[in-house]
Specification:
heterodimer, A: 602 residues, alpha+beta, Beta-lactamase, six-stranded mixed sheet, five-stranded antiparallel sheet, 22 helices, 20 strands, B: 422 residues, mainly alpha, 2 domains, three-stranded antiparallel sheet, 3% strand
Chain lengths: 602, 422
């Protein structure tokens, strides 16, 4: 017998043992994918949703709060519905819908819970709750939804919605998961990071059928959710509601600021919608409806619509001319009235009279002095140099660019630059007479109501402003975002404001002043009317104002589309809102009636 | 001296100690496999597999005592009778048996189940040993070879008929015995080539494989001497090989049942369908792989505790070990098995009698096939074939059968000095 064979057999046994040990070393030690794979098998991450911060107004009223809603969950394997008809009627769904929803839950996973019906309100759920015991396999999961105790401020607040696939793909930080809510517009979007807080994760172990088997590693890896920061806004809800009530039926925007801090007291876009409309189960339907509405209620006119400022631009032109030294306050300038059409009669004008009477011819002359300062013999080059100077002033006033309010999608409007005119007329082929319509705020110039309010704030402050912002306090810091504590100088010495402000006071209070409807009994209001020419229809009514004159507490800009002269709709609304804010009551009820009647074209 | 004549003195204690170590480790792992934190039952709880296994261990000790007391010549003398009884049971179970997971290979008696195919292993070993120890037996003798083959194949075929192909495969172990007793190694080589072809057929397209075989054949013809006899032999060989490829293809796709096809497919590529036919292998590898170097600790395995691994206390018991005891645990157990089997080969080799030697080799070979296939399948080196890990896996029939198998050898070995060499 071959004696080697006994050794071969023993060797084979040892060899197999060795091969197995090596293979095991490879999969148990060298390959580190199995450990995570085993954890993946048993770990079920349960998100502990964080509490989204709420938003208060300046008096401590809740602007946005959280309402509990119930997601009805189902585990298809355990679900028993004996009486489908009753079940459907309790939940107010159709039988086809029921079958559809059950099928999609089954398709997802027969052992795993999935959402059967999303976002049942407390009321809807209460009706179903008593019957819950009859339907094993169904259970509620509480989440919270944005709720509102009022019907105002929708465009500024914005809305929250379920995160979209696209947003999820863009989220590189991995903080969001499918089904999470996220701020989509307005303050909800702007302060998403602060409001959101941090979701926590609980790790549960499950067996192969998905049945829970307790906490993973005694919950050592679990993280608790952290509530989001509450925000305090500077909005005065009462003023906001009053302003929205005045603007009912009108199209336009209103921005009221506290000039001393840049805080937004009121920001109105009309027409608007009820913020509660975009919260809850009907979000998609309601959103679609708002999107196709021809009145564009989702368009935030206060920060997104830009238009020529018209005569409200005149105080600014005067300030620039005074600062540039091309004009003195008392200089009598003769206006023949031949340069441009004018409501003001021919004669001698100074700054005060020109603003008060809104003389177009005067500001044509003033603007020519700004543009043509004889810095060059070539009138074209001279005009360009002049416009560059003029431009730099306007930018300092926050015009021609976004001012940086804490609401997304602000529009910057347009201030004509030399580049713009070069594009339109050719390099250095334009001069003052080509562009003179901008001297009275018409032409290639457009400004938003927010920018107007900011500009009038700078006048009220005699030379500076704080960037307008809605949120005055984040969490308990006592402070807004740091950029909102920065003072911006507009580059005009405070001495030059006196005459301009006096004239603006006269606009409202002097006999025959165009802004008389904005007067507030007992308070010195300074304002300026404007009529923004509109080639497509009736002119837009514009008014800017601040009050009281000696200690400004409110600066306001009102813009009403197709309402004709600024002296009518815009001045009335501005006056009423200032009266409301400063005195807390309305004495000029006849003006209120005038606004609510809505007949401004006559 | 009298003491030298006691069985305790002559028996091979190394095997006995290793046997009990393996049984004990198996018992602990069975408990780990079925342990449920929420119920927190003791290892002795009779509603658990571990409690029941303790009964099987207890009764196994009784069996050992019986084997030790029975005269050692009994096994030689009654080999054919034992074989006959088991063969009868194998047939009888086809009519009176209970079907468990697709195989009619169980008798149910008073709540306990018995699997005659487990006992067929030692009965066949006895019969084979008996036949091969006859005078003038030669594997080169055609008649002897045929009868030897029949002794092995008869129970195997019956077991296949029962639907338990896995257990039937174990009878392939006897090829090792025959090899030791002088089987032409060419048979083994052909066998290995056949297996390789089998796997290649599953991996590659039939047409491509046939072309490759033709090319290889042509190269062999061109490289060697151009003699007609040689060329014809090679051509014949190529035709046979192609025939094998074709029949394997036919066998897998037409003869095998879908679940058997899937097991083979899972071997080739378990990742192709991790939730379908590859589930067992994938989860088993995850369990073992996640154990790391030192394991998750006793009763801490999540793969097994939460039922991700199927058949965890029986066929996939090695996963529990791998997950909870890590590479340290699996290596120690593999070393124990290797030592155990090598020791049995050495015991077989020290027998004077052919009967005892053949029987000893049968024991080692059967253990080896189980070891090879069972551990191999848990780490994805073998298809999933439902055979237990000897002494480790839960199951009365299996433990009893291996106990009988091993201790008959030890009994015979203890008396090896008493036999006269024929």
């Amino acid at each position: 017998m071959d004696n080697n064979r006994k050794y071969i057999v023993q060797f084979a046994i040892i060899l197999v043992g060795l091969i197995y040990c090596i293979k095991l070393f490879q999969i148990q030690y060298l390959d580190d994918t199995y450990g995570p794979a085993a954890e993946d098998n048993i770990l079920r991450k349960i998100r502990d949703y964080s509490y989204r911060g709420v938003i208060y107004d300046r008096q401590g009223n809740l602007l946005v709060h959280n309402d509990p809603v119930f997601d009805l969950m189902v585990i298809p394997k355990e679900a028993v519905v004996k009486d489908t008809t009753l079940f459907c009627s309790l939940l107010n769904i159709s039988k086809e819908d029921f079958i559809l929803r059950m099928n999609s839950a089954r398709k997802y996973d027969i052992y795993q819970p999935s959402v059967f019906l999303k976002m049942l309100s407390m009321k809807d759920f209460a009706r179903f709750e008593d019957f819950l015991v009859d339907y094993p396999g169904f259970y509620p999961q509480v989440r919270s939804l944005r709720g509102y105790y009022h019907h105002s401020l929708a465009n500024a607040l914005g809305y929250v919605g379920e995160i979209s696939k696209r947003m999820l793909d863009q989220d590189t930080t991995g903080t969001y998961k499918q089904g999470d809510y996220i701020g989509i517009s307005g303050l909800e979007l702007e302060y998403e990071k602060e409001l959101k807080g941090q979701n926590g994760v609980k790790y549960k172990m499950v067996n192969v059928r998905g049945v829970e088997k307790g906490a993973f590693k005694e919950g050592k890896r679990d993280t608790l959710s952290v509530a989001g920061a509450n925000l305090t806004s500077s909005i005065d809800l009462e003023l906001q509601q009053y302003g929205e009530w005045l603007m009912e039926g009108l199209s336009g925007g209103v921005v009221a600021l506290d000039p001393k801090s840049g805080e937004v007291l009121s920001i109105i876009s009309s027409p608007s919608y009820d913020p509660g409309y975009l919260s809850g189960r009907l979000f998609s339907e309601n959103f679609a409806e708002l999107t196709i509405d021809t009145l564009k209620p989702l368009f935030n006119r206060a920060i997104m619509s830009v238009y020529p400022p018209g005569s409200t631009f005149k105080p600014l032109q005067a300030l620039i001319a005074l600062q540039e030294g091309v004009l003195t306050p008392d200089e009598q300038v003769f206006c023949s009235g031949g340069l441009v059409g004018d409501h003001a009669p021919a004669g001698y004008y100074d700054v005060f009279k020109a603003i008060k009477m809104s003389s177009n011819n005067y500001f044509y002359i003033v603007f020519r002095r700004i543009i043509n300062q004889n810095l060059s013999d070539n009138t074209f080059i001279d005009s360009r140099l002049g416009l560059e100077k003029w431009d730099s002033y306007l930018h300092k006033f926050g015009l021609g660019q976004t001012v940086g309010i804490d609401i997304p999608n602000e529009k910057g409007g347009q201030i004509p630059s030399p580049e713009l005119y070069n594009r339109i007329y050719g390099e250095d082929r334009w001069k003052w007479s080509t562009i003179n319509s901008i001297s009275i705020g018409q032409g290639e110039i457009s400004i938003s109501p927010l920018q107007m309010a900011n500009y009038v704030s700078a006048i009220a402050n005699k030379g500076y402003f704080y960037t307008p912002h809605v949120i005055r306090e984040i969490g308990n810091t006592g402070k807004p975002r740091p950029e909102y504590l920065e003072k911006h100088l507009v580059g005009i010495d405070s001495v030059h404001f006196r005459t301009v402000i006096d004239a603006m006071e006269a606009v409202v209070n002097a006999p025959g002043g165009t802004g008389f409807r904005a007067a507030v009994p007992g308070i010195k209001v300074c304002g300026k009317t404007g009529t923004s020419q509109n080639p497509h229809g009736e002119d837009h009514s514009v008014f800017i104002a601040f009050a009281p004159k000696d200690d400004p507490k409110i600066a306001i800009s009102v813009y009403v589309q197709n309402a004709g002269q600024g002296a009518r709709a815009a001045a009335s609304i501005a006056g009423l809102m200032m009266e409301k804010y400063l005195t807390g009551e309305i004495k000029k009820v006849y003006i209120e009636d005038y606004v609510k009647k809505g007949q401004f074209i006559y | 001296m009298r003491a030298e004549n006691t069985i305790a003195n002559k028996i091979d204690w190394l095997v006995i100690v290793t046997y009990f170590v393996l049984v004990l480790l198996g018992w602990l792992n069975i408990y780990a496999a079925v342990y449920d934190e929420e119920l927190n039952k003791s290892i002795f709880d009779l509603s658990l597999n571990s409690g029941k296994q303790l009964i099987w261990i207890g009764t196994s000790i009784l069996i050992i005592i019986v084997i030790m007391t029975v005269d050692f010549r009994f096994y030689d003398s009654f080999a054919y009778i034992v074989y006959g009884i088991v063969a009868f049971l194998l047939i009888f179970v086809l009519f009176a048996g209970t079907k468990v997971s697709g195989a009619t290979s169980w008798f149910s008696i008073a709540g306990f189940r018995m699997q005659p195919s487990e006992f067929a292993k030692f009965a066949t070993a006895l019969a084979l040993a008996k036949y091969m120890s006859k005078v003038n037996y030669k594997l080169t003798n055609f008649n002897d070879l045929i009868i030897t083959g029949c002794i092995i194949l008869f129970p195997a075929v019956l077991i296949i008929v029962q639907g338990d192909t896995g257990t039937a495969l174990v009878f392939g172990a006897f090829v090792i015995v025959m090899y030791r007793e002088g089987l032409n190694p060419a048979v083994l080589v052909i066998g290995i080539v056949a297996i390789a072809l089998f796997i290649l057929t599953l991996i590659f397209d039939q047409m491509h494989l046939i072309i490759a075989i033709l090319v290889v054949g042509a190269i062999i013809i061109l490289l060697g001497k151009k003699k007609w006899k040689r060329i014809l032999t090679i051509i014949a060989g190529v035709i046979i090989v192609i025939g094998v490829v074709w029949s394997v293809d036919y066998f897998v796709n037409e003869v095998l049942k879908p679940h058997q096809q899937n097991r083979i497919k899972a071997l080739i590529n378990p990742e192709a369908d991790p939730l379908g036919y590859g589930w067992n292998v994938t989860q088993s590898k995850i369990a073992i792989g996640s154990g790391g170097l030192l394991g998750k600790g006793f009763l801490q395995g999540t793969q097994t505790k939460f039922d991700f691994v199927p058949e965890q206390s029986t066929d996939f018991i090695f996963c529990t070990l791998g997950e909870e005891q890590g590479w340290a645990g699996t290596t120690i157990v593999i070393m124990l098995f290797v030592f155990f089997m090598v020791r049995i080969v050495q015991i077989a080799e020290r027998q004077k009698e052919t009967f005892a030697r053949v029987y000893g080799y049968s024991v080692a070979s059967i253990l080896f096939i189980h070891f090879l296939v069972n551990i191999g399948m848990t780490i994805g080196l073998f298809p999933v074939i439902g055979i237990p890990l000897p002494l480790f896996s839960y199951g009365g029939s299996s433990l009893w059968a291996f106990t009988i198998l091993i201790f008959i050898l030890l009994k015979i070995d203890a008396h090896r000095m008493q036999v006269l060499v024929r």
